Amino acid sequence: MSKRQSYFWLGLFAFGTIAFTLVQDNIRPNYHGQSDLLKYLLGIAPNYFAGLGLTSFFVVMITHINSTSKKPSKSVWLYSKAQISSIIISIAGLSLWESMQTFSTRGYFDWHDLIWTIIGASTFYFIWLIVNKKHCVTRIKRGLIKQLNWKIIKNNIMQNKRLIIIVLTASILLLIPLIAMQFTNEVNWTLFDFIVAGILLFGTGLLCELVMRKVNKTGYRIVLCLVILAALFLIWTELAVGIFGTLLSGQ
Q: What is the dihedral of CA 64, 68, 74, 78, to 10 degrees?
C-alpha cells in the first residue's frame, strides 16, 4: 500500500470517527424533533460510521505492520486480502461489543445496530474496489515486488464487484421490511422471516454468480439465471400466499 493510499484510508477513518462522535455526543442527544425517520437514522448512524471508520483503520495497520516487520508474512490475508481481514476484525469486534450490551444496565442488543455496522463495512469495501481498480495487485517474492498479470487481476476485480453488488442488493431488499416495520404495523416480520428471506435472496444471488463464473456461453448463462430467478419467485410467492397448496403454503 502506497503512502498516498494510507493517507486516504486514515483520512476516511478520521471522518468516520468525527462523524461518530458528533452524532453520538452532540446531534442525537440534542434532537427533539418528531420525525421517526430522523430518529431512526440518528440511532443507527454511529454504528454505520464505526463500521466504515474501523475497517479503514485496520486495513492500514495490517499492511503497515506486516510490511515493516523483519520477516513479512506471505499470507494473502495480510497483504492482497488485507481489506477482507480488516472487515472481519471490525465486524467481529463491533458485534461482540453489541452483544455485551445485553449485560449492561445502560444499553441493550439491537439488530438494527448490527446490520448498519455491516453496511458501514460494506461501504468501505465498495470504496476500496473503486480506489484500487486502476492499481495492479502485487505480492512479495524473494524480497522483491512482483507484478501480477493485469488481465487476471481485472477479471478478479470484475467478479468481486459483481459479488459485492449481489450482496448489497440482497441486503437492501432485506432492509426494506425492516425499515417499514418502524413506521407501520402492516409489516410484521419475525426473526425467522428475515432468516428465510436472507437464505432465499443470498442463495439466489450466489447461484447466479456461480453460473456467471462457471458457464462460458452467454445464452446458457441467461437461461440458467432466469430459471434460478423464476424458482425464487415461485418459492417466495408460495411462502407468502400459497399458490400450490404445499407444506410451505402461506408460511
A: -20
- CB atoms closer than 10 angstroms to residue 50: 24
For 134-166, how does the pLDDT look when each residue is reduced to its tens digit (9 = 90+)?
Answer: 554 444 344 444 444 555 555 555 656 777 778
Residues in Cβ contact with 240 at an 8 Å cutoff, skipping those fewer than 6 apart: 250
CA distance 164 to 167: 5
Give yes or no for a contact between 89 and 57, defined as CB atoms under 8 angstroms apart.
no
What are the φ and ψ backbone dihedral angles of 65, each rounded to 5 degrees? Answer: -60, -40
SS3 74: coil
Write out the DSSP string of 16-62. HHHHHHIIIIIITTT-----HHHHHHHHHHHHHHHHHHHHHHHHHHH
- Per residue in 1-28, pLDDT tens? 778 888 889 998 999 999 999 888 888 8
Name the burial class of residue 74, with classes exposed (0-12), middle (13-18) and buried (19+) by CB atoms within 10 angstroms of its CB. Answer: exposed
CB-neighbour burial class of residue 52 (10 A; exposed 0-12, middle 13-18, buried 19+):
buried
Q: Where are the beta strands (DSSP E) in the chain?
A: 138-141, 144-147
Q: Distance between alpha carbon 191 and the CA centroid of its chain, in Å?
A: 20
Q: What is the CA radius of gyration of the chain?
A: 22
CA-based diameter of the chain, in Å? Answer: 66
For 80, the grid coordinates are 492482497
Residue 201 makes CB contacts below 8 A (sequence gap 6+) with 170, 173, 174, 232
pTM for this predicted structure: 0.55
